[in-house]
Amino acid sequence: SRQPDPDRVRTTCGYCGVGCALDVVVRDDRVAAVLPAPDGPVNRGHACVKGRFSYGYLTSAERLTEPLVRRNGALTPVSWDEAIGVVADGLRAAVEQGGPDAVAAISSARATNEENYLVQKFLRTVIGTNNVDNCSRLCHAPSAAGLTASFGRAGGTDPFDDVETADCFLVVGANPVEAHPVVGARLLQRALGGAALIVADPRAVGLARHADLHLRPRPGTNVALFHGLAHVLIAEGLTDPDFLRDRATGLDELTTLLTDYPPTRVAEITGVPAEDVTAAARLYGRAERPAVIYGLGVTEHLHGTDGVRTLANLPILRGAVGGTGHGFGISPLRGQNNVQGASDMGALPDLLPGYRRVTDPEARARAEAVWGRPVPPTPGLRIPEMFTAARESRLRALWVIGEDVCATDPDSRRVAEALDACPLVVVNELFLSETARHADVVLPVASWLEKDGTFVNFDRRFQRVRAAVRPPGMARTDFDVIQAVAAAMGSDLGCRTPADALSECGRAAPVFAGLSHARLDREGAVPWPCSSPDRAGEATLYAEEFATPDGRAHLSAAPYLPPGEEPDADYPLLLVTGRRWAHYNSGSMTRRGGNLLLDARGLLDLHPEDAARYGVRDGAPVTVDSRHGQARLIARVGPDLAPGQVFCAFHFPDEGVNSLTSEHADAVTSCPEYKVTAVRLRPT
Ligand code: SF4
Fold first, then answer.
1. Where are the domains of the chain?
2. How far is the CA of 624 from the centre of ligand 1 (A)?
3. What are phi and psi of 228, to 5 degrees?
4. At 545, is the secondary structure helix, strand, or coil?
5. For residue range 222-232, what is the model confidence (pLDDT) as tens digits?
6. pLDDT of residue 6
7. What is the structure's pLDDT at 600?
8. How far is the CA of 48 from the centre of ligand 1 (A)?
9. Which residue of 18, 52, 334, 583 sits with most ligand 1 atoms within 8 Å of its CB, as the best mutation to test the pocket?
10. What distance in Å separates the CA atoms of residue 261 and residue 226, rounded to the nearest whole number?
């Protein structure tokens, strides 16, 4: 058993995508402490300030404890039977009036794999639509699309434990010291132990202080930087010709394109000195076992998928991917705890569980055989398209499960307009979030410390999630709620328990066929693909061949294109958004506990030159305006950003950071361009 002690419950952290195993100490059905599991497969006895200390929200007086239905304009407590009845009747009415595609659901990385599996099954088989999406749309959808196009599968290529043998790290658009601290600490250990470290990020993030090279590209210019690095690799013969001949494709087209990206031109576009581009390429190209690790600074751009693909060119050129023993490949640092799993489970409008296309008759036939119901063949709406459809009265019911879209989606005023235009909005939540305030029905649900299932971390490992305490009042798990709504609509989703759901998912998606709760209870963590109960999961991908149709890795020759917004006379600064160490995303959990004492207000980081230019003092209130909205923050003046760039997080929704961000989005995946917004500022 994984249970080390009768009053301790082994579970997996519900904050970031590292997937730390935690031992929750329970006294009288209350969490007394959360300890990092000494034998945690990923964390090995470590945890950060979020996983370890941020559980006070469980007993917050603000927890929702009973269902609420809007009556005469006010959210009013009702019984579960009444609330479920209102949801079922509302969904039925939406289908009658607008057809199945008038209904949509937004699922979540906060939900378990089994809950995500059930949500998409409910939409596809009970409602009859593919209108289901999850929050990866807002963060790592370009990773799924880009890595699939380059290599064939929507995940990182190698196990994180291989960082122990990597000798050079290229860390791009990520701040793991704050956002993924256990990963940040292991990378730091490797760098202090002698591995080369190149950090590419506009900010002087924590790792940059220990880097051999810190490249600071202007926000929105990643593709040019990656092409500059590739240019040097080819020009200086730092590639693997045998690998490129035998296992890759697209070299000629890329080589032609790269004649336009010598380091001198790349310097003009990105602001990174040409000699630093060359030096970084040489460090990466001459390493025995180089590793690429990246974050949302690569994906959350107008050309985010091109960013992922052109970054993936580097390990392909170097022959450092595909089990060659010459490197770690490439790994996306997933943001939320289960953003990988939510997509793995098929909570996506175009993909069934296991990333099988809804347009593929064979994939649909397999799912239909397991589910006993037809699967619609047309891809559904993505999250931004759902909001557009609601504003245009095409969407008549939206079910939001564990996402505070009014706080975390870009151009948030437009999101609120969409919710207000939709006849039925149902929200599953822990608290009366910004989004819940716009809902017609609010359903109180369990948090990650109150439910059972599994999560998938950033290096594709399934791990168990176990209930340490009971949810408060009448709150239920998302799993139970989805089952109840299906039953009220006369359907039986068939999975009685989360364990049943994972087993059924394995029948629908062969890459998960070897996974079960019982196996995870025995083994702790198992990576996918895992096709059989008696075979190990594939921690290193592509040892035989790549999973693309032709079995080869595909180089990308996408050209650099400018971001959606550039600074101008009216909005002369570029805003980058991200996260800070003590809080998580909208902060709904981390703000309701001790972590608030660590970090109590939203800060705007800016350079002393800009502070002087705009008359802003360190520690004083500052108003930030964009073409889309306004936010009020506290100025923090320092050298972490170049002049002309500012940074803030969105952990405090009242401050309105995501009213600033735009609807510009990646053309391939609709992932928003959170990392580049033109703004101006003034003292408040
Ligand atoms: Fe680990 Fe991330 Fe949780 Fe921190 S937030 S304990 S690094 S999983």
1. 8-59, 68-137+338-527, 141-333, 573-683
2. 31
3. -60, -45
4. coil
5. 999 999 999 99
6. 66
7. 66
8. 5
9. 18
10. 9
Asked if pLDDT for residue 101 goes beyond 60, the answer is yes
- Residue 572, CA distances (Å) to 78, 432, 567, 604, 679 in order: 51, 36, 5, 16, 6
Statement: 8-59 belongs to CATH 3.75.10.10: no
pLDDT on residue 204: 93
pLDDT of 587 strictly over 90: no
Instruction: Domain 141-333: give its CATH code.
Output: 3.40.228.10
Q: Is residue 28 classed exposed, middle or buried when 0-12, 13-18 and 19+ CB atoms within 10 A define those classes?
A: exposed
Residue 38 β-bridge partners: none
- Which residues, at least 6 apart from 539, have a Cβ–Cβ distance to it below 8 Å? 158, 159, 161, 459, 460, 527
| Inter-residue contact 313 to 226 (CB < 8 Å) | yes
Average pLDDT, the chain: 93
Answer whether 179 contacts ligand 1 (Cβ < 6 A).
Answer: no
**DSSP letters of 268-306?**
HHH---HHHHHHHHHHHHH-SSEEEEE-HHHHSSTTHHH
CA proximity to 400, closest of 434, 365, 436: 436
Instruction: Report the pLDDT averaged over residues 609-637.
Output: 94
Please give the model's pTM, rounded to 2 decimal places.
0.92
Amino acid at 24: V
- The CATH number given to 573-683 is 2.40.40.20
The whole-angstrom separation of Cα 656 and Cα 145 is 30
- Residues paired with 34 in a beta bridge: 24
Question: 182 CB under 6 A from ligand 1?
Answer: yes
- pLDDT digits 0-9 by tens, 443-466: 999 999 999 999 999 889 999 999
CA distance 456 to 602: 30
Q: Is 68-137+338-527 a CATH 3.30.70.2190 domain?
A: no
Distance between CA atoms of residues 259 and 268, nearest Å: 15
For every residue of 499-540, DSSP letters joined together read: HHHHHHHHHH-GGGTT--HHHHHHHSEEESP---TTS---SS
Say which residue, 170 or 324, is predicted with more confidence: 170
* Dihedral over Cα of 342, 294, 679, 302: its sign: negative
Q: 501 CB under 6 A from ligand 1?
A: no
- pLDDT computed for residue 662 by the predictor: 86
